[in-house]
Structure formats: structure tokens, C-alpha cells
Amino acid sequence: MSACAPRRPAALAPGAEPAPGYEVLAHLTRTGWLDVYDAWSEERACRCVIKTVRPDRRDDKRLRERLLREGGWLREFTHPHLTRAYETFESPEPLVVLETLTGETLSHLVHRLRRRPGAADVALLGVQLCSAIHYLHGRGLLHLDVKPSNVVVDCAHAKVLDLSVARPPGPAPAGVGTRGYLAPEQARGGPLTAAADVWGIGITLFEVACGDVPFARDDDHARAASAENGENGDGPGTGHERRERREGACESTGSTGEWYPQLERSAPPIGSRRRLPSAVAGAVDACLRADPSSRPAVDELAAALRSALPAPPC
To answer: Region Disordered: start and end of each range (predicted)?
Structure first.
């Protein structure tokens, strides 16, 4: 490490009280602008998750507002496939208190399993993602960051996390979301519609089914973005944990001048990576069409994936 490298701001230590009635148990992760903690709620007598703006980013009013806006939405929304927020605090520092989820992120699951999930599991996951996204769209929001590290699965039940870049349909700057998962129109910038989230569902299902995204990853760019956001290399942890931190560092509310492979070539058919039933393969391929107007609507996608599920027992 260079002697003149910026000093990494310290996270809260176990035992700290970031807000009345909450005690930090452990620091879970750090993204480009957030610290996430495992915490204890005295009122509820249970564990919870606390998200707060990193100490070195707290002077950025937009980030403070972004976190509190997300917390407000998650307190208001009620859906079985969306994570819940218990409460938000504006002082002494802005933070959001979330439910603790059991299970693991899809990002972790994909890289832990020796065998790829079955086609029916992929289809069921897709139906559940469609349900959550359909609800968000009905509340006037696009998620814009659907990806494996933003989905937690426990006993075949999925929950979607993180509304930090969510916004209503309409114009948006280039690069809103996570670089490797952006729909072409997100990468390009301009009007965004529900089709951007259909792409997000499709690329998530592609990675779950095949073990990787359809476009090659640019790890050098991710590491550079991590360094720009105050990260010191990949840091400790397993490979999937480091990767999730890199993804977090690449989350953006808009950037220009980046190179996006999805703007230069079409996604390969999922059948070129793995054999799947035609209903599942066709649904995923339809999500990843470059032209947003040619992608299926969320309800159409859900119906296509539901048709691939085994019939319920009589």
C-alpha cells in the first residue's frame, strides 16, 4: 500500500449504538457509499440489519436522501417477495433498519453449488421476481438493479433487496444501476420503462442457470471503480463476497464514458450455454432482447415461466 493512500474510514465497532435501541453486533459489508451492519433491536428482541451512509460520504446530501427515500419505500411496501424496513432515522446520522433475512443471496448460491439449479427452480425464481417487480411497477417505481446479489433465497422463497437506485419511469442518465447487469437503454441513458427491469430479471435467471452473465466481466474496471470509491483492493472474504463488494462499488446513479458490451452485441442465446426446456430458454432470451419494446411485459414473462412449472399435485 502506498504511504500516501487515503486512510479507510473505520466502521462502527461491536457494541456501538447507531440509534436509540439498536446495538451493532458486526460490520457486514461496505459498498461505494454504504456500511451495512448486523444489529440487535432492543424493542423487538431480535436481530436486524442497519444500513447507513459511510462516514466519508455523509456530507453528500444526495446519498443521505437516497438512503432515507429507500427506507421510506420499504416501510410502506408490503409484498412477500420484497424485504421490509422497520424504521428510519434522520439523526444523529441517516440510517435504515431492515429485517434480517435467513438464507443466502443468489450470488452466493450460484457460486456455492456444484450443479446448476434445475429448470423448474429457475422458472419458480423467475415467477417470484416477476411478482415483486410487478408490485413495484404498480407503485410507480422501476427497480433498475435486479441482480443475484440483490436477491435472497431461503427454502425456495426469494426476496428482492435494495431500492437505492429505484425511480419512476422516464428519462435517466447513463449508467444507473450495476454495470454488468444494465439493460442497453440503462447503459446508454434516456427514457427507461418497465422493460429495463424485465432485462434485469432475464440476466439474473441467465446467471443462475448458467453460472455467469451473458457478457464477459471487466474485473479491471470493477477494481478501478472500487478504488475510486475508497475501497482498498478486494479486501478479505470469499470470492463471492469480494465480487459482491465490487458490484456494490460499481452501483451508480449515472455515469458517462464507460464501455458496455451490451451496447455493441446481442446477448447469446441461453441455449448456447446450457440445455433448458424451450419455455424457460425462450422466456430468458426474450428478456435479453436489445430493443426494449420487443421484450415481454412482466405479466407475460410470469405466465411463460409459470407454464414451465410442474403441475401441482391433485
So the answer is: 224-276
Cα–Cα distance between 22 and 71 in angstroms, integer? 16
- Ranges of residues in the chain with a pLDDT under 50 are 1, 219-250
| Closest-CA residue to 203 (of 256, 157, 154, 143) | 143
Residue 218 to residue 230: CA distance in whole angstroms: 19
- Tens-digit pLDDT profile for residues 104-119: 999 999 989 889 999 9
Structural domains of the chain, ranges and CATH numbers in brackets: 22-99 (3.30.200.20), 104-306 (1.10.510.10)
Per-residue pLDDT at 217: 61
- What cell does 93 get? 446520522
Task: Confirm if 33 and 63 have CB atoms less than 8 A apart.
Answer: yes
Angle between helices 278-287 and 298-306 (to 10 degrees): 160
In the structure grid, which three cell numbers stand for residue 124, read together? 419458480
For residue 23, count CB atoms less than 10 angstroms from its CB and return exposed for 0-12, middle for 13-18, buried for 19 or more: middle
Q: What's the pLDDT score for residue 311?
A: 80
d(CA 298, CA 288): 13
Q: Say if residues 83 and 160 touch (Cβ distance below 8 Å).
A: yes
- Provide the β-strand partners of residue 296: none
